[in-house]
Each structure stands twice: as structure tokens, then as C-alpha cells.
Amino acid sequence: MDKANRYLQAGTRENTRRSYRAAIEHFEVTWGSYLPTTGEGIVRYLAEYADKLSLNTLKQRLAALAQWHITQGFPDPTKSPNVRQMIKGIRVVHPTRVKQAAPLLIRHLEQAIEWLESEASAALKRGDYKSLVRHRRSVAMVLIGFWRGFRGDELARLTVENTEASSGEVINFYLPYTKGDRAHEGQTFQTPALTKLCPVEAYINWITVSGLTKGPVFQRIDRWGNLSGKAIQPHSLIPLLRRIFKEAGLPEALYTSHSMRRGFATWASANGWDIKALMGYVGWKDMKSALRYVDSSMSFGGLAVRSTPKRLYDD
């Protein structure tokens, strides 16, 4: 690969390239059509898979087909009026409800951390390094994931070199890119120390126990309690978190890794954060995305039958 191709490829995320390749293969091999194609060809493709694939998947396929045509110097057939009308028709005929992770309730966060801390203390007393490492990692992962509102892939990409923590003060995380950072300009995320459920102390405790000086913050741990040096996989977070919640006596099936992000947004909204402050803290670029994470029942305050009581941690 020459230098130019190296930088051109670096400008597109590997996951995007992989999904685009799969979309092109689906169109040519599974569907049995040819490229370049026309707007009419795209319409027939959409008609065939409208009741088999989700609308989001179909739109991702269209993005891949559009990219292929543009890079090869052909007109983009996905911009055809018939294609746009087809997408509208699919949305009408096959309406789908957007699935959202349940927000992690603050009382459940407290219960999970209380259980993890008690298990870590017990492991320390009996000299069980394997359990101590696992529980300290879990405490840090859950508290940082919640209070910073990180996605699973962002937690997986945190590195010791790009994290600075001052006990009792603040913790800073630098990520070279995020989902909303299309230009890969990088961003620093800051979180203050708290009087309870503190992410700063949780991180320091984890780094102290693990002895990490470089590499991923949240590394895989083998059955003997050894750190692998490799970051956890984002897809492994859901079973990991559910195991933690189950052992802590919580309804684990409710939650996914996104529950921490949505839980923080719900907590912040209930405690008076306006939407712009929330967007700036979490890193959302548009209000529509932010509002999907905020539990609308909080708008009714104490009148809501199932409202969650406000819990401030800076008193």
C-alpha cells in the first residue's frame, strides 16, 4: 500500500469499510444484480428486501451503493425521486418502533457499586487477587460509563496514556475520535470527583490494583486474573454488565451497555441540566439524538407515578 492509499483508508473507519463491502456483496452476489446500477434497479432491490431487512439496514445499504457509484465516477442512483419515495413507502408499510435501552436507575447504580465494593473488600482480605482485579475493573467501568455517558466502544478505546486523574479533583479522558467526531479531530472529556459513586477514585483504585501504566484502560482478564494487554470488546460489555447486575440482585435483563449513557442523561435531566448543557457534556451534535436518551417521564416531576427521585451527589 502506498502512502496516499494509507491515508485515504485511514479517513474511513474499518467498521464502515467492512459494512460497505458486505453491502456491495449483498447487492451483487445475494441479490444477483450488477454495478453500476440505476434508480430503477435500486427500487427493485428495496422492494425485494423491504419485508426482510430493517429500514436502518436498507439505508445503510443505500449509503454503501451511493459511495461505490460516487468513487467510481458514476451518477448516484440512490438520489432518484423513486428511491426516496420507496423509502417513505417502506416506512409506512413496515413501521418499526425504535428500541431503546432502559436507563440505568441511580438506585440500581448504587446497589451495583455497593455490591462490587463489598466483594472487592472481601477479596482483598482473603488475598484473592483474581477477584479483586475483576471487581475493581467493574467498579471503574460502571462508574466511568455512567458519569461520562460513554458508549461501549468509547469505553473500550480509553487508554492509560490519554487519561489523567487527580484524586479528589477531576479526571480527563482524551479520545482521538468518537461517533460524532466525523473529522477525527479528537476530544477531551472531563468529569469531576464526586462525594459518592466517584469515577475519579474508581479509576485510581483500578489503576493501582492492576498496575497499568500504558495500553487500554479496560483490558480483558483471563480465568487466572491476568490482564491480556488487549482492550475489552464492545460487544462483550452487555453480558459483562448483566452478570454484574444479576450478582448484585438487580433485574439484569433490562439493561445494556447503552443503559449507562441513557441513565446519565435521565439523571442529568431530572437534576435540572438543560438540553444544551447535556449535549455539550456528552458530546451530542444534534438535539434529536440527545432527546432520544432523556426519559420524558421526568418532565412531569413529582406528579409522575413512577418518577425517580432526584439524587444529587454534590451536597
TrEMBL record:
Q: Does the keyword DNA-binding apply?
A: yes
Q: Pfam families under this entry?
A: Phage_integrase
The record ties this protein, via InterPro entries, to: CB, DNA_brk_join_enz, Integrase-like_cat_sf, Integrase_catalytic, Integrase_recombinase_N, Phage_Integrase-like_Recomb
Q: Name one GO biological process term.
A: DNA integration
Instruction: List the protein's name.
Output: Recombinase
The residues covered by the Core-binding (CB) domain are 1-73
Q: Which UniProt keywords apply?
A: DNA integration, DNA recombination, DNA-binding
- Source domain of life: Bacteria
Q: Which part of the chain is the Tyr recombinase domain?
A: 108-306
Molecular functions per Gene Ontology? DNA binding
